[in-house]
## 1
Amino acid sequence: MTLDLVVRLLKSVSDESRLRLLAMCARGEFTVTEFVQIMGQSQPRVSRHLKILCDAGLLERVREGNFVFYRLVNSAEIRSLTQQILAFIPASDARARSDQLRLNQIKDARLDAAEKYFQQVASKWEKLRSLHVEDLDVERALCELVEREMPETLLDIGTGTGRILEILAPFIMSGEGVDLSPEMLSVARTNLDKPGLEHCRVRQGNMYHLPYEDSAFDFVTLHQVLHYAGQPADVFAEISRVMRHSGTAVIIDFAPHNHEDFREEFQHRRLGFSDSEIQGLLSQFHLTASPPIEFPGRELTVTLWTGRKA
Ligand SMILES: C[S@@+](CC[C@H](N)C(=O)[O-])C[C@H]1O[C@@H](n2cnc3c(N)ncnc32)[C@H](O)[C@@H]1O
């Protein structure tokens, strides 16, 4: 961080409203409408303060359908500076306490909505789970791989509930999850709203057009997502694009199976993948494949494929 940057960041928070906005963004991601509800200020005024914090590089905006969320920039330096500044706000301050109370009400309402949505999909997932190996066995193997590499930046594509980010959080500096479904993202946001997961966040995006720059990540995971892809090659092209040289991609999905019923019941586009298909796709996009790891289950085999960018 340069001296100029520190001056710019400190200037941007030298205002009561902006300090309150920063304190809220340190506790989650919110829309302008939610900030307006919490702070009781007009929308133009709140928007103006948010713009100043974004321009300074403290906050960023992420679009999700018709909504725009504001959140802290995901860097260790920004998180650390923010924590140090916020530590000076006394917990007894009436404005800070009222902001916190209203913010908790908004979070509780989100949690209710996310739980209701998840209950609808969870029963389908349970049925599928009963046919394959315990998720924990696969997750353990994935954790070992990530722990060995300790990547700085990790992207989880098709993050769903944010489960993969949650289990990998101890081994990474920052984690991003991307998913097409705003409902799943609400579930993920509530799941990631826990101590120790501040460096993991999610945003809306399509695996065919990832909303990230080239070479942005050291590690990319795709857990039980590729079977939704009509064009798997396009997903591999995106994985390779957003990955740094010597980065690693892990793809976990089913080995070929005959459950035609999954197409209708679970909207799967593909009934599993063979080693040769995945290895072919990895090499087409300049990723060197390691030997796959298989997890045979009652009816379905789950396979973990690894590719490294040379
Ligand atoms: C079976 S869930 C897996 C979730 C998560 N990876 C896990 O293992 O817990 C598949 C996820 O892929 C997401 N998905 C499907 N198509 C997608 C696409 N084109 N782009 C991004 N996400 C997608 C779905 O919304 C869903 O959350």
## 2
Amino acid sequence: MNKDIMTRLVRLGEKIPQSTSIPKTVPIYMSSSFSFDDVETLEDIYNGESKGYVYSRISNPGQDVLKEVIVGVEEGQAAQVYSSGMAAISMSILAHVKSGDHIIAGNVLYGGSYQFLKDELNKFNIEVTFIDLKNENIEKYFKSNTKLVYMETISNPLMEVIEIKRISTICHEHNAKLIIDNTFATPVVCQPLKLGADVVVYSATKYLCGHSDVMAGVVISDKDTIDKISHTGCLYGPTLSPFDSWILTRSLRTLKLRVKQHCDNALKLAQYLEKHEKVKKVYYPGLASSEYNSLAKEMFNDNLFGGMLSVDLVGGEKAVWDLIRVLENIKFVPSLAGVATSLSYPVKTSHRAMNDEELKKAGISKGLLRISTGLENIDDIISEFEEALKRI
Ligand SMILES: Cc1ncc(COP(=O)(O)O)c(C=O)c1O
């Protein structure tokens, strides 16, 4: 190239090397935008006459590969991917409502979702009624402007299981959509679309990624709904980066293996803790003593009940603080679903936006410790709890 060094620096190495070999894994398309030989080619893509990429906020090959895996695993029609679980949740909700609409939501939810529904939607004049979906008669809360119901399959942090079929039937009788956060269950444990949900959302930051190194969110639904959510998402802009799309796709390859081990370990740990004198109550739907056990057996696959459990400790808040301090090898992390077992204290982390009255109403006590069971050998996890409980 007979040009100045500045020109050579910016123009060389721009073409993808031609090759007859096919890469074994899909490469990362680390490109914000795409180029075209002429305007007609770009027009054809915009008009849907040919398949192509324009700008990575709209779509990127790595996102499409990720969507293909997610749609196949969840057995839905279409998916969209975002830069966090909250982005997936907020885009899915905002795509369905306008000023003056009404939403019904479960009263035990991840704190961020609760805050978004309670405070953020208020700014748009969207009313949200929080109810106890297990015990209250949801029928009486529907209004002519109720557009959707929002809930979690396994609620954070009390591990309640709510009957999806019943809620979805009532929703559809009232022309409302059911959006379910399936983060704690994963598609290995439960597939809400098969039980009548219209939209499934995930914080993919958790089990779908599973290694505590990516922030991501995904939404699965029918094609028209995903088009609608994608349009909203494209305008707000919480796009998933090409690198994170790639690493999440790779992580999904081992989802079933990981989730099975998380679930097996959680059940054994719950059974152990249930008998411990310093534990008042264990919240885990896999326990025969859980009020959700028979429903969970009906709704969940392969007798799996998730990797998350919570415990109410004798000694309340002080016992939680002490246990966190003495469990030296088990980290205190305000997240979950990594390969290593970790602890969280909901009232000071995920649910810190709830005031005392809201926490009481939801049944979240100050002695509640949430455990994300990892993939370690279960005997090691149990003996560490045994030792630590002796010291508090
Ligand atoms: C059940 C649940 N849903 C959604 C979220 C939000 O996901 P993210 O942190 O990826 O935005 C979380 C985060 O902890 C969660 O636990």
